Structure formats: structure tokens, C-alpha cells
């Protein structure tokens, strides 16, 4: 077994966090053809790799003289860690920071056979070649200097992790609230359809044009929510035109006005919350440095936020986009 002090274990953890960041940032940057500061936190650390490395050392220690057993121990130990970490992070943050659903022989998209085999190979490489050199480096550094170094990095890492954790929680909140706002809009839309049916056939003449416009909207940047907002504005326009000639609708005037105020208020609050979210540099960084991030329930909103974060430096704002969309619709009409 390995006999290290707590400071040495921390040194190994941070070293492999940094090594993993170098490896994954290089790989993703090559794939994206631009530099990507990969990871959950802002600094050059990937906690999963540091935790995985410690796990590999511990599970392989009893059998480190047998390469085959080291390989399988690494496969099982690191895969278990990856699965538990992925499930916990998805339950907590509502997003997946990695997703193997597109790979063969995956389990719930959290782990897959190819990843497990890679963990096994990395365990062999690390225990036989990399870790002995890292171990010698740790032993060469005077204990007082090593303690000071680990303490500084620990403080940096802890502060960085705290800010990144808060950014991830903010992302979760904006995803949940946006989905709630969308469901509220959909309920309002159904009520508007009932009122339009009461008003008569005036809406029928606009159905085809609206359907065509809806198809075009799906090709635009933000299809889901913006198409919903566009459809509701069309419905309010139809009600306003039908109202003067409809005695039944006159009785519903108060309800129509209440729906309109709720619609405008919900849209304004949504835009303000999304703009406020994107102003946080850690929140934008979280979206940019995790291009493979996915979400089962909130993928549409997550994609919108990713694109908005990429456009943020160009002066993008949700309010500006909404106003531009309204102008486009007025021009089309």
C-alpha cells in the first residue's frame, strides 16, 4: 500500500487535477479548433481527474504487481466514481457535464465501455510510468515548502470551486424558472385559443400564414420560446381585431386584458432574469467551457443560453432580441 502524508495526498490530487485539465483542454481545443478552458471550475483543474487518480491508486495498490488486475481494478473503480459523480451532479444541477448516450454500450449516458477501458489503460500508465515520477517530485520538495504550496493551491481551489458551484446553481435555477415560465405561457395560450374560438372564424383566415411563420421560426436562433411568444402575440392581435364586433368577447374584455398583462409581465421578467444571469462572468464561462453539457428536461433553454453566452461580447441582450423579433414580425405583417 501507499504510505503518504495528508499533504502528499493533496499534492497528488492537485497534480492530477492539473494534468487532467491539460489533457482534456488540449483534446477539446483541437476538436473545436479554438482554445477551450475545459472544466467545472475556472482554474486549470479538473476535479474528476484528481479524484479518479486517487481512486486508481487506492484500488490498484493491492494488485499493483499484476498489470491485468491493475487494469480491471482501474476500470471498475474509476467507472464507479464517474457514474456516481455524474448522477449526483445531474440530480443537483439538472445538467450533464458529459454524456455518452451517443456511444455504444453506454449505461444511462453516464458511463460507457470505451470510457471504462480508457480508465483501465490510464490506471496502468499512471501506476507504472507517471506516478513514480510524480512521487519522486513530491519527495524532493522540502516538507515545509510542499505544505506551503499545497495550502496556497487549496485556498485557490476552494474559492474557485465555491464560485463555480454557485454559478452551476444559478444555471439550474434559470433553467427551472424558464421551464416554469414556458409552461405558464402554454397554459395562457390554450386559454387564448378558447377565447379565439368564441370570437368566431376570424382566426381561421390567419392559420395558414401563422403555420408558415412557425416553420420559419424553427430555423431561427431561438425557436422554442420565441415561437411560443410569437404565436401568443398573433392570438392577442386576433382578439383585438375581433373584440369590437363580438358581444361575447366584450364580456371577456377583463380576462383578455389580464392575460395580456400577465403575458407582458412574464416576458419582461424572463428577459431580465436571463440578462442578469449572463452578466455573471463565471456563469458565461461555465457555459462556454462545457460545450458538451446537456440536459434531458431543459435542453432547449440550455442551447439558448449557450448561444447567448457566445454572443454576449457582441452586445447581445434578450430584450434586444425580443424587440428585434417584434420589429421583424411587424415588417412581415
Task: Give structural notes.
With 333 residues, this protein is mainly α. Helices cover 76% and strands 1% of the residues. The chain has twelve helices and two strands; from the N terminus they run αααββααααααααα. It has a two-stranded antiparallel ribbon with strand order 1-2.
Q: Could you give a quick summary of the protein structure above?
A:
With 333 residues, this protein is mostly helical.
Taken from the alpha-carbon principal axes, the silhouette is elongated
Average pLDDT number: 79
> Counting H and I runs of at least 4 residues, what is the number of helices?
12
How far apart, in Å, are the first and last alpha carbons? 76 Å
Which ranges are low-confidence, i.e. pLDDT below 50, for 5 or more consecutive residues? 201-223, 320-333
Taken in chain order, the helices and strands follow as HHHEEHHHHHHHHH
Q: What percentage of the residues does DSSP assign to strands (E)?
A: under 5%
Helix content: over 70%
Q: How would a textbook summarize the main sheet?
A: 2 strands, antiparallel
In the sheet with the most strands, the strands line up as 1-2
Q: Report the structural category.
A: mainly alpha
- State Rg: 27 Å
Number of DSSP strand runs: 2
Secondary structure blueprint with pairings:
Layout: H1 6-32, H2 47-60, H3 67-93, E1 106-107, E2 111-112, H4 113-140, H5 143-199, H6 204-217, H7 224-242, H8 247-251, H9 253-279, H10 281-288, H11 299-311, H12 318-332
Antiparallel strand pairs: 1-2
Helix pairs in contact: 1-2, 1-5, 2-3, 3-4, 5-7, 5-9, 7-9, 10-11
Amino acid at each position: 500500500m501507499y504510505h503518504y502524508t495528508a499533504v502528499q495526498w493533496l499534492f497528488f490530487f492537485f497534480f492530477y487535477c492539473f494534468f487532467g485539465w491539460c489533457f482534456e483542454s488540449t483534446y477539446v481545443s483541437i476538436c473545436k479548433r479554438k482554445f477551450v478552458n475545459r472544466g467545472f471550475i475556472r482554474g486549470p483543474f479538473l476535479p474528476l481527474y484528481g479524484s479518479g487518480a486517487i481512486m486508481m491508486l487506492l484500488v490498484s495498490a493491492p494488485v499493483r504487481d499484476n498489470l491485468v488486475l491493475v487494469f480491471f481494478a482501474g476500470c471498475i473503480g474509476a467507472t464507479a466514481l464517474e457514474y456516481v459523480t455524474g448522477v449526483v451532479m445531474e440530480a443537483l444541477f439538472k445538467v450533464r457535464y458529459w454524456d455518452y448516450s451517443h456511444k455504444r454500450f453506454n449505461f444511462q449516458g453516464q458511463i460507457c465501455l470505451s470510457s471504462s477501458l480508457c480508465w483501465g489503460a490510464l490506471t496502468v500508465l499512471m501506476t507504472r510510468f507517471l506516478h513514480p515520477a510524480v512521487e519522486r517530485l513530491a519527495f524532493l520538495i522540502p516538507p515545509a515548502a510542499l505544505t506551503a504550496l499545497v495550502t496556497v493551491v487549496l485556498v485557490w481551489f476552494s474559492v474557485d470551486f465555491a464560485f463555480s458551484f454557485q454559478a452551476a446553481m444559478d444555471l439550474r435555477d434559470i433553467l427551472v424558472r424558464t421551464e416554469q415560465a414556458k409552461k405558464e405561457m402554454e397554459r395562457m395560450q390554450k386559454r387564448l385559443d378558447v377565447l379565439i374560438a368564441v370570437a368566431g372564424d376570424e382566426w381561421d383566415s390567419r392559420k395558414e400564414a401563422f403555420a408558415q411563420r412557425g416553420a420559419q421560426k424553427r430555423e431561427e436562433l431561438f425557436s422554442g420560446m420565441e415561437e411560443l411568444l410569437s404565436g401568443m402575440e398573433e392570438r392577442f392581435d386576433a382578439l383585438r381585431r375581433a373584440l369590437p364586433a363580438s358581444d361575447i368577447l366584450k364580456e371577456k374584455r377583463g380576462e383578455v386584458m389580464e392575460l395580456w398583462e400577465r403575458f407582458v409581465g412574464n416576458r419582461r421578467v424572463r428577459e431580465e432574469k436571463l440578462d442578469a444571469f449572463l452578466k455573471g462572468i463565471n456563469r458565461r464561462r461555465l457555459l462556454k467551457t462545457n460545450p458538451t453539457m446537456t440536459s434531458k428536461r431543459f435542453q432547449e433553454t440550455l442551447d439558448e443560453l449557450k448561444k447567448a453566452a457566445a454572443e454576449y461580447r457582441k452586445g447581445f441582450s434578450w430584450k434586444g432580441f425580443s424587440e428585434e423579433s417584434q420589429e421583424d414580425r411587424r415588417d412581415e405583417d
